[in-house]
Amino acid sequence: MKRPVEGTAHPRSGARRVWAARELGVLLALALLVAVTAADNSRFLSAQSIRDVLLSASILMVLAVGQTVVVVTRNIDLSVGSVLGLTAFATGKLFVAAPGTPILLAVLAGVGLGALCGLLNGALVAAARVPALVITLGTLYVLRGIDHSWASGEQINAADMPRSFLDLGTATLLGVPVLALLAAAVLVVVAVWLSSYRSGRELYAIGSEPAAARLAGIAVGRRVFTAFLVSGALAGLAGVLHAARYGTVDATVGTGLELQVVAAVVVGGVAIFGGSGTAWGAALGALLLATIGSSLAVLRVDPFWQQAVVGALILAAIGLDRLLAARMAARAVRSQGRAREGTSHGA
Amino acid sequence: MAHDTLYAQPQEPQGPAPGRGGGRLAAVLRRWDTTVVLGLIAVVVGAALLVDGFATGRNAEFLLLDAVAIGLVALPMTLIVVTGEIDLSVASTLGLCSAVMGQLWLSGWPLELIVPAAVALGAVLGAVNGLFVTGFGLPSLAVTIGTLAAYRGLAFVVLGDQAVADFPGEWTDAAVGTVPGGALPWAMVGTALLAVVFGILLHATPPGRELYAIGSNAEAARFSGIAVARRKFWLFVASGAVSGLAGVYWTLRYASARADNGEGLELAVVAAVLLGGVSIFGGRGTLAGVCAGVLLLGTLRNALQLADVPSDTLDIVTGSLLIASVVVPNAVVLLRARLGRPRSGSAPPPRPGNAP
Amino acid sequence: MSGPAAASPLLHLRDVAKSFGPVAAVKGVSFALHAGRVHALAGENGAGKSTVVKMLAGVHRPDSGGLELEGRPISPDGPAAAQAAGIAVIHQEPTLFPDLPVAENIFMGRQPTGRFGRIDRGAMNEAAGRLFARLGVAIDPDRQARGLSIADQQLVEIAKALSRRAKVFVMDEPTAALSGVEATRLFAVIRGLTERGAAVLFISHRFDEIFSLCDDITVMRDGAWVSTDRVADVTVDTVVRRMVGREVSALFPKQDVEPGDVVLDVRGLTRTGVFEDVSLTVRRGEIVALAGLVGAGRSEVVRAVFGIDRYESGDVRVGGRLLPPGSPAAAMAQGIALVPEDRRQQGLVMELSVERNATLTRLRPLARFGLLSGRGERRAATDLARRLHVRHGGLGDAVGTLSGGNQQKLVLAKWLATSPQVLILDEPTRGIDVGTKAEVHRIMSGLAAEDMAVLMVSSELPEVLGMADRVLVMREGRITAELPGSRATEESVMFAATGQPGAGA
After folding, report:
1. A207-218 in b/e burial notation, b at 16+ Cβ within 10 A?
2. Could you give the CA distance from residue C56 to residue B48 in angstroms, rounded to a whole number?
3. Rounded to two decimals, what is the model's pTM?
4. Do residues C114 and C123 make contact, with C-beta atoms less than 8 angstroms apart?
5. Would strands C321-322 and C336-339 be described as parallel, antiparallel, or unpaired?
6. Which of C132, C173, C174 is nearest to C150 (CA)?
7. What is the pLDDT of residues A176-187, one digit of tens each?
8. Per the CATH hierarchy, to which homologous superfamily does domain C248-335+420-505 belong?
């Protein structure tokens, strides 16, 4: 018998390098956008202006990071807008009912309420084994309905909330908005968890190939459940932050926000069918979307264009991902040459 | 025979029971779409008995007028979901067509031209979706979330936040006109006719039947000579055109062209389609079930509104129904499996190795 | 070759039985796997081999009897438990995480961790590298699993099993989708495993592999144990007889036919990197075999001819008429039918009923005024199923409930219903039992006798030699030889397929 033939050695290595390239792409787009806008109006780079962009990006960032955790498992959480709305209103109600509530407690209460919503989603998806798209579409309605029936038209204003809480929305630490710092902290914790801890990596495994994940002994249901819990809890946190930042809450807060969140995640390179993408990318996506909003205003573009641009960006992002994947596949075919299998695999 | 059969997993969220041939009553009764029809009847009867003002001609007229837009868009949506795809951009298409309609009216076009132009525009917007999905091979969920944002954005670009409301009375009256002597709006007659057309197309013609094969296994469909990409492309075009038509109806019915017309309608449509028993994974569902789903949702909302439940709160009902429509059949399957009584129709029976 | 058979077995199956409802899939099977030895498990499809594998994998629990690992009884209650006990099952097509690096595929859930429980990627890659070195193969641990050949995927799976300190390797038809070179490499790896004291259970339909690789062989038939022998003590004939339980007569019932006009004419078909300058003709009444190793581009050629894949240059003519590329519908209209290689993914829509599958290819002719009637469809489906003796419970049952052989007959039926002039069969008898195999061959032969042009892709040499009027051999995307059926021999075909005498599996 002959010596075993060499395996298909690959000069370039895998997954992570592509991800890095993908995030670099978003960063480049962001830099380009900032450069163009700043060239038109240098005030765009003023400390105040940057602070504003960061402020408006932070809440979306928290949501996008939470959504990433769910999307890498090949699921989706469409209910985040409703969860945010519900917790924002609940936070306001809490302060109306008990004006002396410590801020930390209010934050914890919001996160807890969000986690409860996530628990509902997770339980339905993981236990009843029903597609997340349908379930979270349902809870999107249900939670919003609960919000409306609770509020019954009531609006809670800044005057109803303690000064110190509202300051959370505007305060800065060393010139950086506290809100942005909080979002960054969430980002770092989740990103490190996803990339460097077994339980985090298992989420990717589940999204990449659920059957293999089960074979590898991963508790798929429990991990997916956890993912929804995290997404819900972060949406709850975002709700509290929303109340602090805007000071006025009613039952319509966060309506339609889920689309922006999904947009940020997709633009940031998280594959909608799971298995790849990072929290860093999703956060960059959120930052890019927020920056577009501000720079359109600076560039004196009709603000009505913003949504159209976001839509175009989503299409461009998924188109680009597809192109990259096709090029990688072509390279793989070339390097494997004829030894390649005929059966279409992993299509 | 590899892994996929080795590990009896995924009761991959089985949608409702499969549409099977054979006309036995029991089989029909076990089907989800039958359940929905029965539910619809129960709600109508219950509301007529319990809710004041429900069983009046005037109310029936409003109920049906409200159901027209969702009903229209749900028709092509059913076919799209049967192939395993989804179109979330329908409401934005409706909005954009409405906005363009308003803008064209402002620039002096006659409605005789505007209406076909709006429908054609819808078809073009649908073709863009179809191109992205079939031409570039992108997931329709992501594509149509993108165009959902893009089309709505363009609607605002076209019309801004103004409303165009000076459409001629005879047109707006026609949109809400009823069949003489009854509470049946002409618009609903048209929708019902279209539903029959779509129903025949889906269930009794070769191209329609092929959609089930596509939704169950696109590769096997391709190997059977079915032009999968072309079928899907035209479905998206149809979805766009019908959404454009719904945009025309919406504009005339409320006598107002606005960029935010129909915002959020996509969720109601998807909810109705899934409630009607179409599997989100494709390959399963009937148009009759979807029609029942549309009417069930509409009737329930209408009755509850008459019973003084605030309309925003009604979302709880819509959402719960949607969740129940997928959880209940699944729970039944899981429960049956646990009781050790596998039913041939609902759950794949455990197969012995390779039975001879 | 053989070791000390008296040594205590590593894994012992004792009288295991498993029934599914009224069907007894396995009845009282016993055999033992020994360290350092490769044990073949042979039997027709439906003989119960898969059920045995699933019991070893922890997917099914035996109704009675049990497993003993190193003398201790075990009863794994799931795949994870079986793995933990030291039994690894390598499937024909492993299930990997395509998005994740190879190293992570191996160590998922058990990644080496450093400070604060963080995954130590360096250590993980190093460990994976060491495993591949032990196997004597070079796979970059840091590359994505997506795009790995099936052979490499199996090696990743074996490396994973090694990392879990598996002692028993169960390989379920691992070579079915491998090229000769890849199979050779796999055999070297298997020998390496046994040298280190592992026991291997090897399932294959290929006798050449069993006889060159294995030490012991157990034959099963109809769910029951038939025999266990040293491979050295049996011949192919005895094994086949035990598998079938009767003499295999007329496995290749080829009728002699005088070929007619050229029906299918392919000229200069090229798709860069896949196949190049492929020209072939098939005449009426003729069976032409496209032989070669897996991966030589044979399936790709017939897929392109049928319009599933596109090609860059060349043309296809049917009965002299040019066929537009890339359109299966056009190919069907001009009388081509393709029975694809993957029955479950390509041949049938598993979720649909027998009836719906049978009529899927000819909905249009069945429609009247553009509309289909349930009765007409049912009648057509009944006719088809009867013509080819498809055994099924009811026309409304999902095709998934049919046996492999009956599924294949249904695929054939659905294509014959289109009355094709050219019938292309891609691995027509892969994974079906000997009885149905003969039946499929009889059908093919009959069709050729009725003047149909038949083009068959097959990796089974006996089938190629037994059925074909003419043999075309492909290697690395090109046709390297054309042999008349009478002159084709195992040696001449293998020589053309590998480019060297006597190599390959």
Report:
1. bbbbbbbbbbbb
2. 62
3. 0.84
4. yes
5. unpaired
6. C174
7. 899 999 999 999
8. P-loop containing nucleotide triphosphate hydrolases (3.40.50.300)
The answer to whether C11-96+148-244 and C248-335+420-505 have equal CATH topology is yes
- For residue A165, being part of any structural domain is answered with yes
What separation in angstroms does the CA of B355 have from each of A11, B337, C50, C223, C345?
46, 21, 10, 10, 19
In this complex, which of C59, C344, C403 lies closest to B6 when CB atoms are compared?
C59
Residues of B in contact with C154 (CB under 8 A): none
In a domain, A342, yes or no: no
Q: Which residue has the tokens 């922006």?
A: A260
Chain B neighbours among C 319-358 (CB < 8 Å)? 327-329, 331-332, 338, 340, 344-353, 355-356
Domain boundaries, chain B: 57-328
Residue C57: which residues within 8 A CB-CB, separation 6 or more?
A: B6, C76, C79, C82, C87, C89, C170
Number of domains present in the structure of chain A: 1
Per the CB < 8 Å rule, is A15 touching C101? yes
Residues of C in contact with B227 (CB under 8 A): 327-329
Mean pLDDT, chain C, rounded, equals 86
Please tell me which of the candidates A201, A209, A218 has its beta carbon nearest to residue C104: A201
State how far residue B214 is from chain C, nearest Cα, in angstroms.
Answer: 9
Per-residue pLDDT tens for A131-156? 888 899 899 989 999 999 998 888 99
Record the tokens describing residue C44, joined without a space. 């027709």
Residue B161, classified by CB atoms within 10 Å of its CB into exposed (0-12), middle (13-18) or buried (19+), is: exposed
Interface touch B216/C397, C-beta < 8 Å: no
How many interface pairs between A and B have CB atoms less than 8 angstroms apart? 170
Q: What is the CATH number of domain C11-96+148-244?
A: 3.40.50.300
Q: Is residue A138 part of a domain?
A: yes
Q: Chain C residues with CB inside 8 Å of B222's CB?
A: 308, 328
The architecture (CATH level 2) of B57-328 comes to Orthogonal Bundle (1.10)
Cβ–Cβ below 8 Å for B138 and A148: no
Query: ∠ at Cα A172 (A170, A176), nearest 5°?
Result: 115
Confidence of residue B346 (pLDDT cuts 50, 70, 90): very low
Q: Is C450 helix (H, G, I), strand (E, B) or coil?
A: coil
Return d(Cα C214, Cα C205) in angstroms, integer. 13
Question: Hey, which bits of B48-110 come out as E strands?
Answer: none
Residue A41's closest CA among A315, A225, A295, A231? A295
Cβ–Cβ under 8 Å, residues A122 and A225: yes
Would you call B206 and C327 a contact, using CB atoms and an 8 Å cutoff?
Answer: no
Q: Tokens 């501000």, residue?
A: A294
Identify whether A129 is part of a domain.
Answer: yes
* Percent over 90 (pLDDT), chain B: 56
- Please count the residue pairs, one from chain B and one from chain C, whose beta carbons lie less than 8 angstroms apart: 138
* CATH code of A316's domain: 1.10.3470
Chain B: closest CA distance from residue A259 (Å): 7
Contact C113 A3 (CB under 8 A): no
Amino acid at B68: V
Buried b (16+ CB within 10 A) or exposed e, C180-206: bbbbbbbbbbbeebbeeebbbbbbbbb
Q: Distance between the two ends of chain C, CA-based, in angstroms?
A: 19
